[in-house]
Fold this sequence. Notes:
This protein folds into two domains: about 1-20 and about 140-210, Orthogonal Bundle (Arc Repressor Mutant, subunit A); about 30-120, Rna Polymerase Sigma Factor, Chain: A. The chain is mostly helical.
Amino acid sequence: MxxxxxxxxxxxxxxxxxxxxxxxxPLPEAPESPICALVEAAKRGEEEAWExxxxxxxxxxxxxxxRRIKSDADADEVRQEVFLQxxxxxxxxxxxxxxxxxxxxxxxRLAINYVTRRHAAPSLSERTWExxxxxxREPFAxxxxxxxxxxxxxxxxxxxxxxxxALYAFYIExxxxxxxxxxxxxxxxxxxxxxHVARKRLAQQLAGFLD
Length: 211
């Protein structure tokens, strides 16, 4: 049975500066039929159609990324990667009308990956005792804490967006269940269930580390 992490335990393993997540940004309004037509045209390789998609959704993709990445240059780099990846995976999009949400999910995932790579502490396997005298002086507890943080980062990265949002809002942003209910626009019971499921899934991801 997977270990259920308690609030204090999750707070101990995380840093709000690295894990803060906010609610999804509103998508730009666009008639469904033209968007579907653009998607189908882009799938056929029509460059003008894809350029129009970038024009419509470029800002919301950028804003999604900026919620996690503060540097303009870095955010723009990730935005370019979002649209490159989206174009490669466009044939997999079965519901063209969901293009906006699909792009936003890609943007959020790539932004998380970028932040994780930039801020992840190097593991002990990547350094030798000879390469860093700091390791010799560093308390074992600090080494363990960094490894735990990295394990949590990787675990969160493997969770779905809904699970991540629930954990970030409750443990990192410190929102109450009632506040989450209002902001997610779902019943209180649904918030409790999401949080329970998200915590359980994170525990499953961390099972190897906690053993």
